[in-house]
Amino acid sequence: MKKWLIALAGVLLTFTLAGCGSKTVASTSGGKITESQYYSSMKGTSSGKQVLQQMILNKVLEKDYGSKVSTKQVTKQYNTYKSQYGSSFSTVLSQNGLTTKTFKEQLRSNLLLKEAVKDKVKITDKALKKQWKSYEPKVTVQHILVAKSATADKVLDALKKDSSQANFTKLAKKYSTDTTTKNDGGKLSAFDNTNTSYSSKFLTAAFKLKNGEYTTSAVKTSNGYEIIRMIKNPGKGKMSDHTADLKKQIWDNDMSDSTVLQNVVSKVLKGGNVSIKDNDLKDILSSYLSTSSSSSSN
According to the Swiss-Prot or TrEMBL entry, at which residues is a lipid covalently attached (N-palmitoyl cysteine)? Predict the structure, then answer.
């Protein structure tokens, strides 16, 4: 299927298909290139067709779900990426042929598509139970990262005598090689089972800890040796207490599932009263409009 705005980079939405005519797009010593010539050339290419598909989908999504996606939401997601990439953010945008404006357009399109997924996909009890198996609530930990096993042993010996948060903080400042967190006692931002920043070994070890507990042996990861201490673990509790979180995680997974997205886009376009006026492009949505499928996470 075509990729519907689910990545940072993609086809830019600046190509305009409407209003093509005799206006000159470019001129050369060999003659002019008009909008109509440009349009005729582009509509026959895969990138040109992809842009039109995307524009059609965006129009329908805006009509159906535009009121559910605010500028504030787009800005919040934009700032998250900006913070993640730091000083290299502008370079990353440029390398992907994006500007602040076009990137925010993509983020908005992605949020609109997510609203469509939430609307069109039925989440079954079976799906909730399956997600519950891997679910872990957000926890807050502090950690000490060291390069050598001997150093880890030294830290663990000190913790055997005093495993308090104050002492762990002191040890983190002295030994940790994680320069971004050591001065704050190794404290990390809260995370749950959907976290992809830390290794599976790190996450597994962390989620096993109760408040005040620490890993009594170092966790070996690709970064070195990790010693983790739990600051706050609310406990998993009952599934019924976390239905909203479970649904959110399922929808997030659906956004990476091409089959689910295919079905959702098909439903959205079928309900969008789409009419293709150019005969050369009449079949551009055939793979979506000709299929009949049901969407459910089960």
Answer: 20
